[in-house]
Write a structure and sequence with these properties.
Layout: H1 2-12, H2 16-37, E1 41-43, E2 46-47, H3 48-78, H4 81-87, H5 92-122, H6 129-156, H7 160-178, H8 189-195, H9 199-206, H10 208-211, H11 219-243
Antiparallel strand pairs: 1-2
Helix pairs in contact: 1-5, 2-3, 2-5, 3-5, 3-6, 3-7, 3-9, 5-6, 6-11, 9-11
Transmembrane segments: 20-40, 52-73, 94-117, 129-155, 162-182, 221-240
Domain ABC-2 type transporter transmembrane: 9-207
InterPro entries: ABC2_TM (IPR013525), Nod_factor_ABC_transporter (IPR051784)
Length: 244
């Protein structure tokens, strides 16, 4: 099982679209934005990087849900890859689990890379240990919801050629709604209301209070994220049973 996980992780770094959108693109955005606007003070000893690194983190997480993971899953379904492997006595369950773990690893690695770059180049302020752990636990919980969304998309749209452009549109629409391109507070009220129903909006904006040691848990996020996991799980199961 460990060998399969390591192989799946290794394969992740051989997929250009995964590496670019999850690792390279967020770092490019961080460097360009901070160097363009400057790492100015936002009060209480904090600087622009302390807020923007949350945005660059979300930039790296969303493509996993909307592009790389659902495309892998849809191609496996579309090409009957998993069924063919079953004939060669390949343990399909362990293969799927190892791939899911590899996507979780890619997501966590993306977050850690953002923190490292932010710390090394722009002196990102780190929270206290307990808040740091709480931050990562909630980020990981968000990753679970993102993978559930990816599963739902893959089962709903089983054509990878359709899923890629659809995922790209969904990706950049979500970027717009959660405040990647424009500061969230400056968005129209309609978009902010929509954003309040998207879990990663909280990771992009509200987790700042966790990062600054103001509160340990975001209850609104936890409730909404749990709702997404349950709803997408039920819908995915229904679609799977219907299209089986």
């Amino acid at each position: 099982m460990i060998n399969k996980i390591l192989l799946s992780i290794k394969m992740q770094f051989r997929v250009p679209i995964s590496v670019f959108f999850s690792l390279i693109f967020p770092i490019i955005m961080m460097l360009v934005i901070i160097m363009s606007y400057g790492n100015f003070s936002i009060g209480n000893g904090r600087h622009f990087i302390d807020k923007y690194f949350l945005i660059s983190t979300s930039i790296g997480l969303l493509p996993i849900a909307f592009i790389s993971f659902p495309i892998w899953l849809s191609e496996s379904i579309e090409n009957d890859t998993l069924k063919r492997l079953k004939y060669f006595d390949v343990n399909i369950s362990s293969l799927i689990v190892s791939n899911i773990i590899s996507y979780c690893f890619l997501a966590i690695f993306s977050v850690i890379l953002n923190i490292i770059i932010g710390k090394v180049f722009f002196s990102l302020t780190l929270p206290n240990t307990q808040y740091f752990i709480a931050f990562f636990l909630q980020i990981f919980y968000n990753i679970i919801a993102l993978l559930m969304i990816g599963t739902f998309l893959a089962l709903l749209i089983r054509k990878s050629k359709v899923l890629l452009p659809f995922g790209m549109i969904l990706l950049f629409l979500t970027y717009m709604i959660i405040g990647v391109f424009v500061q969230y507070g400056e968005l129209p009220n309609v978009l902010k209301e929509i954003g309040n129903w998207i879990p990663i909006k909280y990771a992009t904006n509200d987790f700042y209070s966790i990062w600054t040691n103001e509160r340990m848990w975001d209850v609104s996020f936890l409730k909404l994220n749990s709702l997404y996991i349950v709803v997408t799980g039920v819908l995915s199961l229904c679609i799977y049973k219907f299209k089986k």
